C-alpha cells in the first residue's frame, strides 16, 4: 500500500534535521559498552512509548489482566515474570529485602520512603514462559540517563515493544532511542492504538474511527483509515531511522485481543532463544586440564601493578567528567525543568546510569588486566575457559585482603548531601531497574542511589528554593565523586593483590591447577 502525500505523523518539523543525523551518532552503546548479551541472559520484551498511547493497556491485553494490576509509582519499572504463585514485590534502594504486597488490583501498596527502582510482578500466565514483560516510564520523562538505562536493558533483553497512538508524533528523544536500538540490533515491534479522535493520523482536519470514502471519477473507493495511519507512522519513522525498515507494525483496536501481536512475540522468542543457545559452546575452551606456565614469564608482576594503577586512574578521571556533565544537566532541570520536587527522581536515575557505567568500565578493565598478566604467564591469547577458571580463586583471594563485603555495598546519597554506605546480602539487588542474569565477573557491581530522605526533603512544600537545590546537588555530586574515587582505587588494589597471588602460585608450581 503506497498512499499519496502523508501528514507529518512521526517527526515534528523542527526535529527532522536532527533526526536525519541519528544513524551517525551511536552515543549510548559506546558510553555503556552495550554489546551482545550473554547467551544465558533471560529473554524479555521492553514496553516503551509516550504518555497517553495506552502502553499499560496493551501490556495488560497481552497478559489478559486488568490494567490496574500493572500500576506502579511514577518513575519505577515494572518487571512481569512467570511464577506458579502470584506475587508482587517492590525493590527500594536502602533496604536489604524487597517489600511484598498483594498482587491484586485492590491491594494497597506499602508506605515507602522513596519510590522503588522496580516492581516485580509474578503471574501464572503461559505467555511469560517464553519471555518476561517489562514496562518502563514514559519516554518523555526518561531524560538522558533513562535512555541509557533503557538501551542497556533492551540489548540484554532482546526486544522492544514501542506503543504509539494514532494521533501522536515521534519526538526527537524517541527517534534517538530507536536509532540506537536499530544500531544495537534489538528487535523492535510497533503497536499503534487509536487516538482521542479514532484512527485519523495527527495533522488531518477530520478524525473518524470509521473507514471513509474518496470519489475517483464516478466510482467511490473505500479508504482504510487504520492502514493509512499505520503506513503514515511507518513512513515518517523510516525517514529518520531507515534501519528499522524490517520492523513489524500491529494496529490494536479497542476490541482487539492482541492475538497477532502475541504470536509474533512468541515467534521472536523461539528464534532468539535458539540463537542464544547456540552462541556459546556448553564447555568453553580451556575449562579443563592443566595449563602450563611459559618458560620465562618475565616481569609480569611489575607490569600488573603499573596497569592496575593506570586503569584505576583512567576510570576515576572518566567518572569525574561524567559527574560534571550530570551536574550541568541537573542544574538545567532544576531551573528550567523538573524543579526542586523532581530533583530526587532525576538525580537517582542519573546515579543508576552512572553505576552502570562505572560497573561496565571496571569489568572491562579487570578483564584486560587478567588477559594481559595471565597471557604473559600462560601464553597469549588466553582461552575464555582459562580466564573463567581464574575468577573463582580471585574472588576467594578478595576476602583475604580486605573482605568482599567491603566491596559489595551500596552508596546512598543522604538528605544532607553526604554519602552513606549500606552493606549486606541483598542490598545491591534493589538498585537495578531491570536485573539480568547472575554476574560472573570478579568484582561486585558499583551501586549508587538516593536515600528516601532526599524525596522527603525536596518534596516538602517548604523546600522550593532553586538556589538551595543547586547547592545541595553540587555538594552531593562532589561527595559521590570522592567516594567513587576511593571505591575504584580500593577495587583495583584488591584485584591486583588477588591476581598477583593466584598467578604467583601458578608460577611457583609451574602449572594452573584451578
Distance between the termini: 63 Å
Q: Topology as H/E string?
A: HHEHEEEEEHEHEEEHEHEHHHHEEEHHE
In helices, the fraction of residues equals: 40-55%
- Rounded mean pLDDT score: 84
Q: Which descriptor suits the 3D outline?
A: globular
What percent strand?
5-15%
Instruction: Give the total of beta strands.
Output: 16
- Largest sheet, spatial ordering of strands: 4-3-5-2-6-1-7-8-11
The low-pLDDT segments are: 1-34, 204-218
Number of helices: 13
Largest sheet: 9 strands, mixed
Structural class by helix and strand composition? alpha/beta
Radius of gyration: 26 Å
Outline the fold blueprint:
Blueprint: H1 16-20, H2 27-32, E1 44-48, H3 55-63, E2 77-82, E3 87-91, E4 99-100, E5 118-123, E6 132-135, H4 143-157, E7 158-165, H5 172-184, E8 187-193, E9 212-216, E10 219-223, H6 225-240, E11 248-251, H7 259-277, E12 291-292, H8 300-336, H9 343-378, H10 384-401, H11 404-407, E13 409-413, E14 419-423, E15 448-450, H12 452-458, H13 466-509, E16 511-512
Parallel strand pairs: 1-6, 1-7, 2-5, 7-8, 8-11, 13-15
Antiparallel strand pairs: 2-6, 3-4, 3-5, 9-10, 12-16, 13-14
Helix pairs in contact: 4-5, 4-9, 8-9, 8-13, 9-13, 10-13
How would you describe this protein?
By secondary structure, this protein is of the alpha/beta class. It is built from 13 helices and 16 strands. The protein has a nine-stranded mixed sheet with strand order 4-3-5-2-6-1-7-8-11, with helices on both faces. Strands 14-13-15 form a three-stranded mixed sheet. A two-stranded antiparallel ribbon has the order 9-10. A hairpin with a 2-residue loop joins strand 9 and strand 10 (219-223). Helix 8 packs antiparallel against helix 9 and helix 10 (384-401) packs across helix 13 (466-509). The chain is globular. Residues 1-34 and 204-218 have low confidence and may be disordered.
Amino acid at each position: 500500500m503506497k498512499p499519496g502525500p502523508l501528514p507529518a505523523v512521526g517527526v515534528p518539523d523542527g526535529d527532522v534535521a536532527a533526526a536525519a543525523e541519528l544513524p551517525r551518532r551511536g552515543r549510548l552503546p559506546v558510553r555503556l559498552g552495550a554489546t551482545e548479551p550473554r547467551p544465558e541472559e533471560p529473554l524479555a520484551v521492553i514496553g516503551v512509548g509516550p504518555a497517553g498511547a495506552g502502553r499499560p493497556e496493551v501490556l495488560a491485553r497481552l497478559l489478559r489482566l486488568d490494567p490496574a494490576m500493572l500500576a506502579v509509582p511514577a518513575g519505577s519499572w515494572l518487571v512481569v515474570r512467570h511464577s506458579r504463585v502470584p506475587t508482587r514485590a517492590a525493590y527500594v534502594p536502602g533496604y536489604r529485602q524487597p517489600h511484598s504486597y498483594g498482587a491484586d488490583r485492590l491491594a494497597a501498596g506499602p508506605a515507602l520512603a522513596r519510590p522503588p527502582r522496580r516492581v516485580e510482578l509474578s503471574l501464572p500466565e503461559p505467555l511469560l514462559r517464553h519471555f518476561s514483560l517489562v514496562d518502563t516510564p514514559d519516554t518523555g520523562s526518561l531524560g538522558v540517563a533513562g535512555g541509557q538505562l533503557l538501551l542497556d536493558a533492551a540489548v540484554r533483553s532482546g526486544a522492544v515493544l514501542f506503543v504509539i497512538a494514532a494521533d501522536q508524533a515521534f519526538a526527537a528523544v524517541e527517534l534517538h532511542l530507536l536509532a540506537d536500538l536499530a544500531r544495537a540490533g534489538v528487535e523492535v515491534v510497533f503497536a499503534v492504538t487509536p487516538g482521542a479522535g479514532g484512527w485519523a493520523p495527527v495533522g488531518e482536519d477530520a478524525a473518524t474511527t470509521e473507514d471513509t470514502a474518496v470519489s475517483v471519477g464516478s466510482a467511490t473507493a473505500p479508504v482504510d483509515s487504520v492502514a493509512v495511519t499505520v503506513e503514515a507512522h511507518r513512513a515518517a519513522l523510516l525517514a529518520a531511522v531507515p534501519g528499522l525498515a524490517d520492523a513489524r507494525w500491529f494496529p490494536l483496536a479497542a476490541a482487539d485481543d492482541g492475538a497477532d501481536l502475541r504470536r509474533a512475540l512468541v515467534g521472536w522468542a523461539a528464534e532468539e532463544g535458539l540463537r542464544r543457545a547456540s552462541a556459546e559452546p556448553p564447555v568453553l575452551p580451556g575449562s579443563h586440564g592443566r595449563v602450563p606456565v611459559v618458560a620465562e614469564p618475565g616481569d609480569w608482576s611489575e607490569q600488573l601493578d603499573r596497569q592496575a594503577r593506570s586503569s584505576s586512574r583512567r576510570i576515576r578521571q572518566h567518572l569525574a567528567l561524567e559527574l560534571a556533565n550530570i551536574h550541568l544537566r541537573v542544574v538545567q532541570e532544576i531551573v528550567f525543568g523538573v524543579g526542586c520536587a523532581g530533583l530526587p527522581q532525576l538525580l537517582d536515575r542519573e546515579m543508576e546510569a552512572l553505576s552502570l557505567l562505572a560497573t561496565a568500565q571496571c569489568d572491562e578493565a579487570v578483564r584486560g588486566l587478567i588477559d594481559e598478566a595471565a597471557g604473559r604467564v600462560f601464553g597469549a591469547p588466553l582461552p575464555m575457559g582459562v580466564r573463567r577458571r581464574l575468577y573463582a580463586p580471585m574472588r576467594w583471594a578478595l576476602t583475604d585482603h580486605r573482605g568482599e563485603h567491603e566491596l559489595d555495598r551500596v552508596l546512598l546519597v543522604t538528605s544532607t548531601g553526604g554519602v552513606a554506605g549500606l552493606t549486606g546480602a541483598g542490598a545491591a539487588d534493589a538498585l537495578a531497574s531491570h536485573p539480568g542474569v547472575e554476574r560472573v565477573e570478579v568484582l561486585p557491581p558499583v551501586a549508587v542511589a538516593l536515600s528516601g530522605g532526599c524525596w522527603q526533603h525536596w518534596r516538602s512544600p517548604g523546600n522550593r528554593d532553586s538556589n538551595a537545590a543547586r547547592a545541595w546537588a553540587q555538594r552531593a555530586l562532589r561527595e559521590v565523586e570522592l567516594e567513587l574515587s576511593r571505591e575504584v582505587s580500593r577495587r583495583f588494589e584488591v584485584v591486583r593483590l588477588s591476581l598477583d597471588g593466584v598467578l604467583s602460585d601458578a608460577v611457583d608450581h609451574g602449572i594452573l591447577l584451578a
